[in-house]
Amino acid sequence: MQSGTAAVERVFREEYGRLIASLVRRFGDIDLAEEAASEALVVALEKWPDSGVPPNPGGWLTTTAGNRAIDRIRREKQRDAKYKAALMDYDDTAHAPEGPIEDDRLRLLFTCCHPALAAEARIALTLRLLGGLTVAEVARAFLVPETTMAQRITRAKKKIAVAKVPYRVPEAVDLPERLSGVLTVLFLIFNEGYLATGDGDPVRDELTGEAIRLARILRQLLPEEQEVAGLLALLLLTEARRQARLRNGTLVALDEQDRTGWDHTLIAEGHLLVRECLAVNRPGRYQILAAINAVHTDARSAADTDWSQVVTLYDQLTRLDPSPIVALNRAIAVAELDGPCVALALVEELPLTGYHAWHAARAELLRRLGRSAESKAAYDAAIATTQNSAERAYLSRKRGELV
Amino acid sequence: MTHYLLAVHGPAEMDEFGSYGSKEEMEEAFAATGAFNDTLRADGYWVFAGGLQPVSTATVVDGQGDTPVLTDGPYLETKEALGGFWVIDAPDLDVALRLAAEGSKACRGKVEVRPFDGIA
Q: Is residue A384 part of a domain?
């Protein structure tokens, strides 16, 4: 019975984004959609463990939740006229495509990632409505109390409803910029999972997994957008190294990782996407980052890495995004090509004194230059600016190796 | 359709050219705002708009007691204050935001977009 319940919940979670998105399209109300979906889950939990999961569980859930939503509208006749209008407009057929891209989840993703919403609310709404995470799970993912997260989500949903944030894929002219906002949200979800900012679990694979799942959906829906392919490739090639990246609660740096522990299926998939991007040749930020990761995952060992290719790619990225963080990562690659002295000069001039990775990069370069005392101080500064336990353990170990 | 307030905030204290640096800038902003108003009307978004005199001309009235209590000056003493506004009728927030961006460029100020709860 327990396994039956777990199976129902797994199917529900997988279908959740599609279910909510189609209910929002039909009834124009996120709260109603969520209530109807959770009522459908209750029915599924009653029936499926005995009768088995229906052949088309998504369709079953959509029909059941749709009926529940209509019941709810009928019951709550005192609620305002827009529900009645929605009921009158009620349309169970697939709606006519309005543009080249048509999927309810895509519309909902653009609504959740709307630039008029606060950045943290976009991430929370995306995980809640498309990822199907509960409010408690989203709260845990971002280390805030559940009531705080509930308020954040409620406030964002109210703004969507009252200010009429549209439920629609942006017009072609606005698409690149709006899509870039969506990709940012997915990348942030992934990064929070890959190197958690707080002092809890250092790696949160439920978040990296969810970001990849959403990126795959986006890739399916927008096959022509190379930046989507680039982001998916970047996430896959990064995720492929996850198992080798942590040993006994300590982060393992790229040059020390056991490369046989990498996930070669994910790497093959990522490389295929990168090659596709190269063939189309419309480079963007995520495609370049993916290409850099393709170079790393292509090398049998750290020493075999084609560092000149990595630096060339960072040069290309710098032209698109001349940020100090890109410059820092470029400097780390330059160290492998031109030596730590050249790289240190590049690192020193960056305004990143509050950023743990800047201190860590400096510490590493100073260590390689034999400047132990300065290196130790830099490791201390790096440890002081990160809360991630695995990273702190790694930095402490490196610091301890200095004489 | 939803009614939105597009509120333009600017410095509470104004010199002879309003919040603009020079006579020319002021005249350019007025002309651009006039042209923007014309497109709002032509495209059917227009409800009402206006520019306000500086906050130093404001009077606060509290009529909740037996006799109204009058206070010279604005309700809130702030460095920035409402300088003018548009009320528009738009199908959704994306349209309102696009119009706000055009209005902001025309009048040379930041624009706050807020949906109305209701309109009489």
A: yes
**Cβ(B49)–Cβ(B37) below 8 Å:** yes
Average pLDDT over residues A131-155: 88
Q: Is residue B11 part of a domain?
A: yes
Segment A71-103, tens digit of pLDDT? 998 887 665 666 556 655 554 444 444 443 458
> Helix, strand, coil proportions of chain A in percent (round to 5)?
70, 0, 25
User: Which domain does A15 fall in, by range?
Assistant: 2-88
Domain end among A88, A122, A137: A88
3-state helix, strand, coil in chain B (%, to 5): 30, 35, 30
Residue of A nearest to B3 (CA): A163
**Which residue has tokens 């009402």?**
B48
Size of interface A-B (CB pairs under 8 A): 26
Closest CA in chain B for residue A165: B93
Residues of B in contact with A163 (CB under 8 A): 2, 4, 93, 96, 113-115
CATH of residue B18: 3.30.70.1060
Give domain status of residue B120, yes or no.
no
Buried b (16+ CB within 10 A) or exposed e, B80-106: ebbbbbbbbbbebbbbbbebbebbbeb
Name A221's Cβ contacts closer than 8 Å, sequence gap at least 6. Answer: A101, A103, A105, A106
Cα-Cα end-to-end distance for chain B = 15
In a domain, A224, yes or no: no
Position A94 scores a pLDDT of: 45
pTM (global) more than 0.80: yes
Res A83: pLDDT = 57
CATH number for position A384: 1.25.40.10
Token output for A272: 């295929």
Angle between helical axes of A104-112 and A2-27 (0-180°, round to 10) = 80
Q: Which residues span the domain enclosing B75?
A: 2-115
- The sheet carrying B80-90 orders its strands as B46-51, B80-90, B2-11, B110-115
For residue A176, the surrounding DSSP H or E stretch is helix A175-194
pLDDT for res A79: 57
How high is the ipTM of this complex?
0.88
A165, A170, A174 ranked by CB distance to B93: nearest: A165
B62: DSSP letter? E
Is residue B52 a part of any domain in this protein?
Answer: yes
Average pLDDT, chain A: 89
Q: B100 to chain A nearest CA, in Å?
A: 13
In a domain, A72, yes or no: yes
- B57-102: pLDDT as tens digits: 999 999 999 999 999 989 988 888 999 999 999 999 999 999 999 9
Question: Is residue A64 situated within a structural domain?
Answer: yes
Which of A88, A103, A127 is the endpoint of a domain?
A88
